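Dear U.,

Please find below the material for section 3 of the report. The protein was modelled together with zinc ion; I have listed the sequence and SMILES used, followed by the predicted complex structure.
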Amino acid sequence: MARYQDLTGTIHGDFIVIEEYSEPDLVKGRLWICQCQKCGAKEIIPGSSIRKHTHKFCSTCICSTVKAMERFAGIAENINEELRHVGEQTQYTAETVRDAWLWHQGVIFD
Ligand SMILES: [Zn+2]
């Protein structure tokens, strides 16, 4: 078993490591609660990703860019088009798509 390394307080890209997450992931190992220093959003990141610097950009910050929101709006429009075909009234917005994407990325909201 790998030697325990306390990552609390270390900085990785946008993030500062706040504390270890209570339950380790069976596949990814130890998880750490990290907070974006720019926007304050929290994400749970595996220790291996932190050590390899593979996850250093905040998803929320990336999503707040105009370009990202334009893409999400485009996706929402496609979904709405499909929904109209099947007679659904539900309408997706760029925000709905963004939140779904963030959820898929494992981003945890406060
Ligand atoms: Zn951020």
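For the text of the report, you could mention the following: The pocket of zinc ion is lined by residues 14, 36, 38-39, 41, 58, 60-61 (CB under 6 Å).

Regards,
Y.
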